[in-house]
Design brief:
By secondary structure, the chain is of the alpha+beta class. Helices cover 40% and strands 30% of the residues. The protein has three helices and four strands; from the N terminus they run E-E-H-H-E-E-H. A four-stranded antiparallel beta sheet has the order 2-1-3-4. It starts with a strand and ends with a helix.
Length: 86
Amino acid sequence: LRVVVEGEVAYWGLLLPPEEDLRAHARAWGGVSSWEEWLLERLGFLEEAFPQAVEVELWGVWAGNPPRLERLARVWDRARREVRNA
């Protein structure tokens, strides 16, 4: 997983744990128990760290021959973008 904020890599995860491991960790010590919860938690941290961000991209590695890095999603705050471009 790679998170790009304003063209800069803000987070790079080489390997995300299997959901079974997240659930086991959550049962034993608390915390997130799914990839969705994990991603929402990470995005919350990034939102605090980059309050000025206008655009955020999520990238992931698709298995294939050869494996490739592809953008999964791109979101932006339209109001902030319009203010910045004014």
